Amino acid sequence: MTTATHAQVDSHESSLRGARAWFAEKGLTRPHEGRVLSGVAAGCARRYDLNPLVARLLVIAVAVVLTPLAYVAAWVLMPQDVTAAAPAPSAA
Predict the structure, then answer these.
(1) Reported pTM
(2) Other beta carbons within 10 Å of 45
(3) Which of 28, 39, 65, 79 is deepest in the core (most CB within 10 A)?
(4) What range defines the domain where residue 43 resides?
(5) CB 11 within 8 A of CB 25
(6) Is residue 48 part of a domain?
(7) Nearest-angstrom CA–CA distance, 35 and 42
(8) CA–CA separation, 46 vs 38, rounded Å?
(9) Which residues of the chain carry a pLDDT beneath 70?
(10) pLDDT value at position 26?
(11) How buried is 35 (Cβ within 10 angstroms: 0-12 exposed, 13-18 middle, 19+ buried)?
């Protein structure tokens, strides 16, 4: 088994490398084997000692719940188009 050597990156660095270093410090990494799609749920399951199926179901449940909530929030917060008002009839 070979291990990749990476340059030390500050986990507080405001960049993608810093964010990845922070996740790695917390033990949240995506496995190479036993993953479905990208392995995010499998990585969370491994880190928090969950059954991978339970983690995947939680990810699906969160997506199903948050997607409509995000849509409703956008619906409430996003203003409507301003339409040109029709000219008022003139009394001649």
Answers:
(1) 0.58
(2) 22
(3) 39
(4) 29-68
(5) yes
(6) yes
(7) 6
(8) 14
(9) 1-7, 84-88, 91-92
(10) 77
(11) middle
